[in-house]
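sry for the spam today, last one i promise. C-alpha cells for design, 725 residues
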C-alpha cells in the first residue's frame, strides 16, 4: 500500500519514467504496424497519449528536452553520415536548387495566405511562412530502413534540407530583430554570413585532421563512438554560438566525418543502434507530448487555422516536389520521396512557433493550429515516404533479379587466413570493406597450426577472436575455423577447396632477416599452389583512415580471368571508404577498367595515370603519402600479364616501399571462362580473344628493355652519389 501511495501522475520516479518510455518504444512499432500506421507516426501518437495533454502519465520534463534535442541532432547526423559522398557531390547543385525551391514556394505562398486568411501583419505572416518553408527529416528512418539513402531523390532531399532550414531560420531571426528593433539590419545578415563561412572552413579543416589522428592512436570502438558524439555536439554547439540552429551543425559534422565511418563497420553499427533504439524515439515521443489534441474541440477557430496551415504547408511542398521531379527527370516515386522527406515538421517549426508566441507575433489560436499542423504534416510525410520507399525498393529489386541484369563480378566467397592477433583485425576489416554490400556469403576466418604447443593454440584463439570482433556490427556472418595440418599452406589450400573460396585474404609477410623473401615462404608456396585470387595486406594505419587508393596495374591485365573481380574488389573498397582511386595503368588497359566500373555501377571518384614501365611508377611513387593505400596487381609466371618487371616486384617493393601501406592482389588465373570486359571508349577495339604470341613476345621484349633502362638509371644514380660523397 505504501508503494502504491507513492505513485502519482505524472510519474516522478526516474526508473518508472524510463521504464514507461522503453515500453512505448517496444510496443508502439508492433501495435501500429498491425494497424498499417508508420511507426514514426505511432511514436508521436503514443507521446500525445501519455503526455500532459493526454493521460498525463508523463510530464515533458528536462529529460525529454535533453533526449529530444539529442534525438533530432542524431537524426540529422545520421542523414549526413549515411550519404554516399560521391552521390552527394554529383547531386549537390540539384540539392541546392531544390532547397531554394522548397523554401521559396512555401515562403511566398505562406505570406499571402497568412495575410488573407488570418488578417495578421506582414511581419507575422513572414514568421508563419517560415514554418511552412522549413522542414525536418522526420521520415528519414523509413528511407534508411529500405536502404534508399543513396537514391537520387533521397540525396537531393537531404541536401536541400540544410538550405531550406538555414534560410527559414535566417528569416525567423530577422523577423524577431525587426519586431524588437523596429528596422531591418543588413549588418547582422553580413556578419552571420561571415561567421557561417569561418565556421564551415574551420570545421572542414580541423575535424578531419583531428579524427584521422585520433583513430590512428585509439582503436577501441567504444572510445571512437564517444569521440564521434563529442565531435557532433561540438559542431552543434559552435553552430548555436554563431546564431544557427544546432541541427545544422550536426548535419555538417556528419558530412565532414562521413568518410571515417564506413557503412559496413562496427562504429557505424553502434551509431545507428544507439540512435534508433533510444535517442530518435525519445525525440518523436517528445514531439507528440507537445500536441494538445483537445484544442480542436475548443472552437472552430483553432480547427480552421490548423486546416489552412496544413493545406498551405503540404500544398506548397508538393508543388516544390513536382517542380523538382520535372527539373531533375525523376519518376513518380522520386517525387513522392522528395515530398515525403521535405513535408515533415518538427525542430525548426517548433522553434518558430515558440518564438512567435513568445514575442506576441501570433495568437494562441494560431499557436495551437501550428502544433496541430505539425502532427498532420508528420503523419502525411511518414505515410507518403513509406509507400514511395516500398515501391522504389520493389522496383530496384525487380531490376536486380531480372535475367541478364545480374552483375558480372562474382560475389566474394572469402577465406581470411589469420596468424597474428595484432594484424587479424585489420585484415578482416579490409576483407569486409572489399565485399559488395549485397553479398550475403559468410566469411571464413581460418587459423592453421602445425603443432599442439599451448602458446600456438592460444595465439590462434586470440587471432580468431580479433577477427570476429572486427566483423561485429558489419552484418557479415563469420565462421571461424581452427585447423591442424602438417603444412600451413596445404591447410589453407584444403580449406579454400572445402569452402569453395574465391578470395584468399592474408597478411603480408614482414621480413625477419636479410635472406628472407619479401613475401615469405608461406605466401610464395601459396601462390604456387592455387589459382584463386590472393589478397595480401599490410596496413600501418586503420583502413578507414586511408585518404586515397593508388592501384598499379600491369600491362595486359585485362586478359586475365580475374580482371573483373579485382576491379570489383577495389571498387567496393573505394566506395566504402569514400576515397579517390588513382589507377596507374597502360593506356590500352584503361578503357577496360572504365568499362567494369560503369557496368557494375561503382560510383567512385577515379582517375588514370599512364604506367608503361616501372620508371613511370618510380617517378609517381614520390607522391604516395603515409595515409594512402597502394594496391599492386601482381601476376603469376604462367599468366598473360606476367613480365620480367613483375619478377622483380618483391625486391622492388621491399626496397622502396617498406613504410607504405600496401596490398598486393594476385588475380584468379584460369578458372571459369568469363566474358571479356567491354571498354568504355566506343573507339577502342573490342577484343574477345587473348593476344597473339607475337604480341606477347613484343611486350615482353619491351618490358626487358624497360627493366634494363631502369637498372642502368639506378646504377648511374649510385655512381653519382659515390662521386659526390
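last one done:
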Amino acid at each position: 500500500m505504501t508503494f502504491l501511495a507513492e505513485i502519482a501522475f505524472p510519474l516522478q520516479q526516474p526508473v518508472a519514467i524510463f521504464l514507461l518510455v522503453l515500453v512505448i518504444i517496444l510496443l508502439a512499432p508492433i501495435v501500429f504496424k498491425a494497424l498499417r500506421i508508420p511507426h514514426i507516426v505511432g511514436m508521436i501518437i503514443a507521446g500525445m497519449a501519455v503526455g500532459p495533454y493526454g493521460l498525463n502519465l508523463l510530464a515533458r520534463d528536462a529529460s525529454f528536452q535533453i533526449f529530444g534535442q539529442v534525438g533530432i541532432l542524431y537524426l540529422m547526423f545520421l542523414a549526413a553520415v549515411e550519404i554516399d559522398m560521391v552521390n552527394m557531390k554529383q547531386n549537390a547543385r540539384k540539392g541546392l536548387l531544390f532547397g531554394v525551391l522548397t523554401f521559396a514556394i512555401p515562403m511566398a505562398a505562406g505570406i499571402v495566405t497568412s495575410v488573407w486568411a488570418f488578417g495578421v501583419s506582414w511581419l507575422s505572416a513572414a514568421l508563419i511562412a517560415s514554418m511552412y518553408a522549413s522542414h525536418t527529416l522526420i521520415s528519414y528512418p523509413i528511407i534508411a530502413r529500405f536502404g534508399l539513402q543513396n537514391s537520387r531523390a533521397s540525396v537531393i532531399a537531404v541536401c536541400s534540407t540544410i538550405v531550406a532550414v538555414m534560410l527559414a531560420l535566417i528569416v525567423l531571426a530577422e523577423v524577431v530583430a525587426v519586431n524588437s528593433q523596429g528596422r531591418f539590419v543588413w549588418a547582422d545578415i553580413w556578419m552571420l554570413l561571415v561567421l557561417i563561412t569561418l565556421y564551415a572552413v574551420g570545421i572542414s579543416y580541423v575535424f578531419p585532421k583531428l579524427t584521422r589522428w585520433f583513430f590512428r592512436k585509439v582503436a577501441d570502438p567504444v572510445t571512437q563512438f564517444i569521440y564521434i558524439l563529442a565531435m557532433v555536439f561540438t559542431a552543434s554547439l559552435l553552430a548555436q554560438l554563431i546564431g544557427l540552429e544546432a541541427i545544422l551543425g550536426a548535419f555538417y559534422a556528419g558530412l565532414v566525418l562521413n568518410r571515417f565511418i564506413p557503412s559496413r563497420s562496427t562504429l557505424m553499427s553502434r551509431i545507428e543502434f544507439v540512435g534508433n533504439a533510444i535517442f530518435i524515439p525519445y525525440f518523436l515521443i517528445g514531439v507528440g507530448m507537445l500536441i494538445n489534441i483537445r484544442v480542436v474541440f475548443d472552437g472552430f477557430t483553432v480547427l480552421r487555422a490548423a486546416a489552412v496551415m496544413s493545406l498551405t504547408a503540404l500544398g506548397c511542398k508538393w508543388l516544390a516536389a513536382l517542380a523538382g521531379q520535372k527539373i531533375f527527370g525523376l519518376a513518380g516515386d522520386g517525387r513522392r520521396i522528395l515530398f515525403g522527406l521535405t513535408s515533415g515538421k518538427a525542430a525548426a517549426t517548433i522553434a518558430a512557433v515558440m518564438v512567435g508566441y513568445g514575442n506576441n507575433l501570433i495568437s494562441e489560436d494560431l499557436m495551437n493550429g501550428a502544433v496541430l499542423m505539425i502532427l498532420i504534416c508528420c503523419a502525411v510525410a511518414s505515410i507518403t515516404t513509406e509507400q514511395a520507399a516500398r515501391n522504389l525498393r520493389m522496383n530496384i529489386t525487380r531490376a536486380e533479379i531480372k535475367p541478364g541484369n545480374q552483375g558480372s563480378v562474382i560475389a566474394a566467397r572469402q577465406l581470411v587466413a589469420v596468424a597474428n592477433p595484432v594484424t587479424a583485425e585489420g585484415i578482416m576489416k579490409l576483407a569486409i570493406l572489399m565485399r559488395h554490400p549485397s553479398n550475403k556469403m559468410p566469411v571464413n576466418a581460418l587459423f592453421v597450426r602445425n603443432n599442439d604447443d599451448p602458446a600456438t593454440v592460444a595465439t590462434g584463439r586470440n587471432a580468431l577472436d580479433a577477427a570476429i570482433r572486427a566483423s561485429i556490427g558489419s552484418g557479415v556472418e563469420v565462421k571461424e575455423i581452427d585447423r591442424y595440418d602438417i603444412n600451413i599452406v596445404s591447410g589453407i589450400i584444403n580449406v579454400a577447396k572445402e569452402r569453395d573460396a574465391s578470395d584468399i585474404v592474408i597478411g603480408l609477410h614482414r621480413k625477419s632477416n636479410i635472406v628472407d623473401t619479401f613475401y615469405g615462404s608461406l605466401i610464395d608456396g601459396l601462390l604456387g599452389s592455387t589459382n584463386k585470387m590472393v589478397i595480401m595486406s599490410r596496413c600501418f594505419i586503420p583502413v578507414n583512415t586511408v585518404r586515397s587508393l593508388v592501384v598499379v596495374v600491369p600491362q595486359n591485365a585485362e586478359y586475365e580471368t580475374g580482371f573483373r573481380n579485382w576491379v570489383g574488389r577495389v571498387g567496393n573498397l573505394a566506395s566504402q571508404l569514400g576515397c579517390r582511386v588513382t589507377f596507374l595503368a597502360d593506356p590500352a588497359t584503361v578503357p577496360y577498367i572504365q568499362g567494369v566500373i560503369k557496368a557494375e555501377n561503382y560510383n567512385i571518384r577515379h582517375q588514370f595515370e599512364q604506367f608503361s614501365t616501372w620508371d613511370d611508377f618510380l617517378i609517381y611513387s614520390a607522391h604516395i603519402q603515409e595515409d594512402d593505400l597502394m594496391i599492386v596487381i601482381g601476376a603469376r609466371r604462367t599468366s598473360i600479364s606476367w613480365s620480367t618487371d613483375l619478377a622483380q616486384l618483391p625486391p622492388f617493393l621491399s626496397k622502396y616501399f617498406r613504410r607504405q601501406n600496401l596490398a598486393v592482389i594476385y588475380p584468379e588465373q584460369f578458372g571459369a571462362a568469363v566474358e571479356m570486359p567491354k571498354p568504355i571508349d566506343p573507339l577502342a577495339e573490342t577484343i574477345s580473344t587473348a593476344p597473339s604470341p607475337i604480341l606477347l613476345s613484343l611486350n615482353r621484349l619491351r618490358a626487358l628493355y624497360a627493366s634494363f633502362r631502369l637498372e642502368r638509371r639506378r646504377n648511374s644514380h649510385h655512381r653519382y652519389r659515390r662521386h659526390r660523397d
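DSSP finds 26 helices and ten strands in the chain. ok im logging off now
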